[in-house]
Predict the 3D structure of the following.
Amino acid sequence: MHPFTYICPSDVATAVGSFTEDLADQPLSTQFIAGGTNLLDLMKQNVARPTKLVDINRLPLASITELPNGGLRLGALVTNADTAYHPLIQERYPLLSQTILAGASAQLRNMATNGGNLFQRTRCYYFYDTSAACNKREPGSGCGAIKGYNRVCGILGTIDHDPKTTCIATNPSDMSVALAALEAVVCVTGPQGERTIPIADFHRLPGDSPQYDNTLQAGELVTAIDLPPQGFANHYTYLKLRDRTSYAFALVSVAVGVMMDNNQIQEVRIALGGVAHKPWRKREAEALLIGQSADQPTIYQSVAEALLEGAKGYGYNTFKIELAKRAVVRALGIVFQQNQ
Amino acid sequence: MISNMPLTPLPPSSITLTINGKAHTLDLAPWTTLLDALREYAHLTGTKKGCDHGQCGACTALIDGKRINTCLTLAIMHEGHQITTIEGLEDEPDKLHPMQQAFIDHDAFQCGYCTPGQICSAIGMLNEGHAKTEADIRELMSGNICRCGAYPHIVDAIHDVMHQTH
Amino acid sequence: MAKLKNIIAKGMVSATAVVAKVLPAPEEDPLLNAGQYIGKPYPRIDGRLKVMGKAVYSAEHALEGIVYATLVHSSIAKGKITLINCEKAEKLPGVLKVITYQNVPPLKAPSNAFVVSMTDPLAGSSTTLPIMQSNEITWNGQAVAVVVAETPELANYAASLIEVAYETKPAALLLKAEKSHAFTPDHVVSQPAEVKTGDAEAALSAAPIQVDEIYETPIENHNAMEPHATIAYWPNESQLTVYDSTQYAVGVQETLAEIFNLKPKQIRVLTDFVGGSFGSKVTMWQHVPLAAVAAKLTGRPVKLALSREGVNRMVGGRTMTEQRVALGVATDGKLTALIHTGYTMCTQDTYAEQFSLVARHMYASPNLHIAQKVVPLDRIQNTFMRAPGETPGMFALESAIDELAHKLKMDPIELRLRNEPDEDPVEKMPFSSRFLKETYTLGIDKFGWKAQQAPPGSVREGDWLIGSGMATSYYPVQQLPMPVKARITADGMVTVRTSSVEIGVGLATVQTQHIAERFGVHYEQARFDQGDTDLPSARTAGGSAATAAIGGAIRNAADKLTKELLLLAGRIKTSPLQGANPAEVVMRDSGLFLKAQPDVGQTYREILKASDKLFIEADGESPAPTLAMKFSMASYGTHFCEVGVHMHTRQVKIRRFVSTYDCGRIINPKTARSQIIGGIIMGIGMALMEESNVDEHTGRLMNPTLGEYHVPVHADIPPIEVYFLDQPDPLMPMGVKPVGEIGIVGAAAAIANAVFQATGTRVRNLPITVDKLL
Ligand SMILES: Cc1cc2nc3c(=O)[nH]c(=O)nc-3n(C[C@H](O)[C@H](O)[C@H](O)COP(=O)(O)OP(=O)(O)OC[C@H]3O[C@@H](n4cnc5c(N)ncnc54)[C@H](O)[C@@H]3O)c2cc1C
Ligand code: SF4
Ligand code: FES
Ligand code: FES
């Protein structure tokens, strides 16, 4: 770990105002720290080397409140555990609760915050190993994963045409997958004031700058995540496939939320995790189910094919294409209770 | 890439941590994790380091009654918190907490290295109150790895205590 | 098989029978069926300390003025350091020293590697590689610098500032690619690398039913929960004290003596508690001498606690294997050909992990070909990992047997029974005890095994495909010398001391029970001290051999003390033991009593008091390892398991596990059960998830972490039932046979066989991850 200075302000304005200029060779030289479970992990690996930490744990962002539109506002500092077990979440957004509880461990969920979870960085093995080439960690250095051990890497939205920008990493967050399905909105305060960002626009694909995971500007603070009123509390599931039963990141995961009216599908959300640089959604795929009756498993396969269209494997991770399809089929099956 | 001039670490400053009900004033720089503060500075080595990256649970302790991985948090972030480690589970010295006794009774360990973390985690889990079945215990204890493979006996021990207290 | 036997028999395998004839008949241990303390589920002696967080592991000794060392690891597999720049690190206030090949003092490379010459007491080192003596790099992860600083944080930071440039040479990294360089090792743990009976290939082609497949197992790492740690300090120029997480304190002592050109007496190695080993702490790895060097150069006590990543870069794991098993069988299910051959990796120190040993002892076949080769790779030295050899070997053999049973449409247990040998198939010696069939019978009952199984892939519960599988388990008796010192004091206490180390297997508890039983004293009056090289020199606690070896030494010491007590009693005028000889007395009720007249005798206290002695003491030696020259000796067992595999997404869920064992007499059913369960759980890990992922281009281990090297967690583990036959082996001290490692052997095969039964898909390369079942 590299040395840093530490401050712990108690209001948002001071926190946001305490950002210092990035060093030329070192972006993100000032960083917020919330639960610390991702940032300290990366700092110990010398992947993150902030020179100043702004501890945001004293900011008044640790509550869950009702929104006038019937939705809920999740404070950025509410822990993942408190969110998952919150009675309103369990009642109205059980998909989110189930998803959070499928991630990490009980201890980590007690520490991890909703805000921090949005920012967790990829688990690509080469990103974590400072002796390896990695365009995300060190722009322009190459991508160790593309010809290496890339089992955990992505199959959708990957960029691989230019060795200097190639990145096939995934976003490892479970929570973000559910948030994508729920179409949550991220509330941000920054040096330029407040703004809201739909979750779909919060994370980004690598493009030619894989070093950026999201669309925030330096110094912007996530204050809350707003959940829209529709929580798909009657028909939902989060299916997470991994190398062991618990305490492992997803190889592939699927969040599904469905609204039914008299056995007819009104609305569907399907988001995939573990496959891309951001939670993966495709409206055309979801549309195949709209207006259909619930008991048509034959359509599930077409939905899966549509969702995975254009998927590309890189060797060790090629199986994810087939696995993701099967996961979609199974998840839809669970939601429509065809089979458990 | 490394900046040309290495940064000089900040001098330590005096930090007071409340560990097992006792105030410990330690000279710590901001970069000291709570785990290292316990083990290397407060010389309370009951809390173990198995990975230092949140991946094993050996460093589990209770902060205001909640279980966390002490390796992934800074000591400086815990001034004013009640920190409870394996050394402080009982008020009376040398008297065992029921969970500790249950671990002995069920032979819920071999090498013992994961054990303090398992015990603190189990107590934290019971505080949380979400475990109802053995399957729940297994899922909610999955953040504590035991390479000796004492899992079935650990679950038995926790199950026992759960039923004693409920 | 028994390593020491092999040393004696090395190069004269054919002479075994001759030697055996002149050996004295083994004498049965009178405690074979004793049951006052032996056989009782005593709680672990060190349990209280462990649950209170008061058990002190190696990194946890607080020494005045201690400083911290961190390693920098190479990032190439082979080549040379061309530049190493430590300036930035050295400039930091609080950094005491940066050690590289450029300024390290000369250190003698260990002359022997333990894995190669297992019987040389000097060979405690994992490798013979020089320790940081040049710019040469021989594996990816090798230590290239040691940074010593006042705090652990500073040492880690300073380490990250060290810049190293390399000249890379082409490295041999993949077993498959390098097979053209394979060679036959001199021996496989002192056994011949190749064994042939009849013409197995011809018999195979002639057989009406055959299985001929390749099975692969990946590199695995032990990942014991306690990362290796060493604290070293030099009280003066010529004395070194080391707290080390080792299973083999004497090996570390002897090896450090060689490296630093000291006498073993000048070095003290202390180990109170070891947080798991599984083979990783049997031999000494290079961080230990590096800690000692750092202590020497800084004049301070140095703590070098490896990070998890550091452990996996500095401590070798289990080799990958590629094994061919070919079986030919007549329609009656009798084997006509058994071929088990294949490859493992090696380095400059050739340790051929003994996967081919199991096939020498399990099944009768008139035609056998068993052989293994090694492929030199530019990787970290491979080493012992829980049941080395048997574990990967049994996966291949027992998978193949299952494949054969399916081809024959025969119950796999029936197939095994038809091929159960009457004597050791290769050594042609009788078994000392082999209750394998009985473990089948017990398992069939406890598991509810059905001889008739539905066709593979046909049993469903909802969306889950269900299947059961079984496999056999085996672990040889290894007779190692583990001397002890036993002392009876005037207060009636009996204390036995050894330098052997408790690694969490319950050795201290079990031996305390044994001491109480052997000397006829209360459990509270029996004491077992260990883990200090100032105590009698003991071999490593590996090989599941400690219980029997130390047990035998204690018996020997007890016999000597009986004589000594009788001698003293003979001098006491009033002693009722006057004139009695050792055969006429027993140790019980804290004294010696006449067998013929149970009321007549004297307590230890009385004898010592009357003789004006504070204590009497005797050295105990383990029995000479000659038994295994006459008998084939091993533990046996059977695993049964039921799995569910999701029909779409193919996750494997183990639903239940039942294992039945012939491990001789069980001294402590509680700790023995824990040992077996631990082995099974590691077997579950091996079957389903464990794999060290090495980058094919750089040779770098990419998952040196517990997050990415998956080991089982609580949620992976089904209910596990373990049953012991508890039949004493008549030739072993207390009737015991190995318990420590057998649990893992065959477990992965049982799971693979169950997965096949569930899905119809045979996975021959571990681990069985979802991608292999899609
Ligand atoms: C062993 C292990 C296993 C895990 N398994 C899973 C898993 O299975 N599934 C899963 O989803 N996650 C998993 N995680 C990741 C975990 O969920 C994240 O580390 C956690 O959610 C991050 O939250 P935090 O509050 O600790 O963030 P921190 O570590 O404090 O911060 C992370 C980043 O977010 C920034 N940040 C934090 N809060 C804000 C804010 N309000 N505004 C702006 N920036 C902010 C910080 O500057 C930092 O860069 C695992 C982690 C570990 C260590
Ligand atoms: S996939 Fe992305 S994160 Fe991984 S090595 Fe390549 S550039 Fe780095
Ligand atoms: S040491 Fe903290 S989780 Fe492993
Ligand atoms: S008891 Fe050894 S790791 Fe759990």
